[in-house]
Amino acid sequence: MPLRFLPQRLDVLDEEMSVAANAARMAPGVNENHIRSQLARFLFKGARAEQPAGTLSGGERFRAALAATMLAAPAPQLLMLDEPTNNLDVASMRQLTSALDSYQGALLIASHDLPFLESVGTTRWLLLAEELRETTAEEVRDLLEASETG
Questions:
Q1: What percentage of the chain carries pLDDT values higher than 90?
Q2: What are the structural domains of the chain?
Q3: So what's the pLDDT on residue 1?
Q4: Which of 6, 64, 86, 88 could cross-link with 92 by S-S, CB 3.0 to 4.6 Å?
């Protein structure tokens, strides 16, 4: 099963390469027109796609890494995201939600962002504490609220 992993640190991008070159490197065999059209969906059109990854802001860097990750050929059937909403700007959050809405495979998301997890239609909740166990959104909400209050 083809799978892709987008780490929290976004270290999948080569900082010296352009956004387009990074996407091409991560999606060998995918034609340039398809890469460019997919990058445009993530707000990297024209000259923006030629910008070196090392010059991107946090939200832009996330969008570039997500676009490149999702361009894999064959398309990943499992996409694993580690804390995808950390440090996102509004445009990047919209792009993430939109990309996940159109994604056709399974998602495995590690996150503390309960509203985000609910917005993407999470159907199975797992809690990793002393052991991994199935839980509910309500229990996760209660645990997060308890940790915020003390």
A1: 43
A2: 3-111 (3.40.50.300)
A3: 54
A4: 88
